[in-house]
Amino acid sequence: MSGKLKIHPLLAVACIVIIVAGMQAIAPVLNLFLVALLLAVTVMPVVAWQLNRGWPRTLALGLTIVFVIIIGAFLTSILGLAINNMAEKVPFYKERITVIYQSGLNYIASKGINMTDIESLELFSPDKLFSVGSSFIEGIFSTFGNFFFVLLLMIFILIEFSQIHLRAGRKEYETDSWQLRFSEIANDLKKYVSITAISGLMAAVANVVLLVILGVDFAIMWGFLSFLFSFIPNLGFILSVVPPALIALLEYGWPQCLIVVVGFIAINIIVDNILKPRFLGQKFNISILMVFVSLLFWGWVLGPIGAILGVPMTIAVKKIIIFMNKDIDGENNLVLTQNQTESED
Question: Whose CA is closest to 50, among 36, 37, 40, 64?
């Protein structure tokens, strides 16, 4: 018998490529499952709190699901109304973008700069910029728009989670069982999600209040987007401020646009440096490089929703790799022990 279990690097790379290609091929369906899984991880502490106090499992699940339905139905109706209203104002926005774009070109040309080459680039055309921005937003809301299907998936996942929680409490699983390992991954995700969700919600509420005061259209939708983008550390804030600032620019001009940008920056500083440490007392040290790589990779694999799920997915994959290394080390130790026993015989 060989001394160690080995996997050829080319075989490992081939397996990874096949898995990633499969995920990319089923991304529309996979996104629904991943969002439902993340929501289940988020609300599972509520179910666990009820179960730990002896509440019947059916009652705990029922109350939690009803609460999620109420919140989800409210958000879905509000966002649906905002998207419909936004669609009606698309011609106005396109016209304003064209006017501002042409004014910018004229101003630069008045300074003696040749704009012929820049004008020929379709990348900077108003239609192209508007198309990219709207496609990105539609890609995010398309997943959350399937509210009832996501809800159904979340219910099934919660039922399984609650069963695992009860059986783990009775110590019915082996220490290396997949259920306990999955619970450990879920706990890591739960910590990240709870910290990010609470701080993101505080910032989103403040952003909505600011936008309502300034009279910027679709304030609730931009607040919801800022909440979602809070799951992208460091880069999420930049993504969250661009849409409302652009709308403020198109509707009112540069002064309102600058107020929105300064206001978002001030709110972000207060939440991240004052409220978040005070109320949560815990921080995930996630490097900007890891965030950027996660954003690019999962965005490429899963589409726009991958930018939001990127960091949680990276945390889960990292934990799975740790478990796999432990299993391989355990197999290697077992093989070495068998070899030693055979040599002694």
Answer: 64
**Residue 72 CA: distances (Å) to CA of 39, 128, 202, 269, 282:** 11, 33, 18, 29, 28
Domain locations along the chain: 9-344
Count of CB atoms within 10 A of residue 103's CB?
10
In eight-state DSSP terms, residue 231 is: T
Read off the DSSP letter of residue 173: S
**Among 211, 209, 203, 202, CA closest to 257:** 211
Using CA atoms, how far apart are residues 189 and 183, in angstroms rounded to an integer?
A: 10
How does pLDDT run across 101-146, given as a tens digit for each residue? 777 767 777 776 666 655 555 555 556 666 666 666 666 666 666 7
Q: Which two tokens stand for residue 139?
A: 């890609």
The model's pTM is 0.70
Q: How many residues does the chain have?
A: 345
The answer, yes or no, to whether residue 3 has pLDDT greater than 50, is: no
Predicted confidence band at 177 (pLDDT cuts at 50, 70, 90)?
A: confident
Q: Max CA-CA distance within the chain?
A: 92
- Tell me the two tokens of residue 107: 């101003």
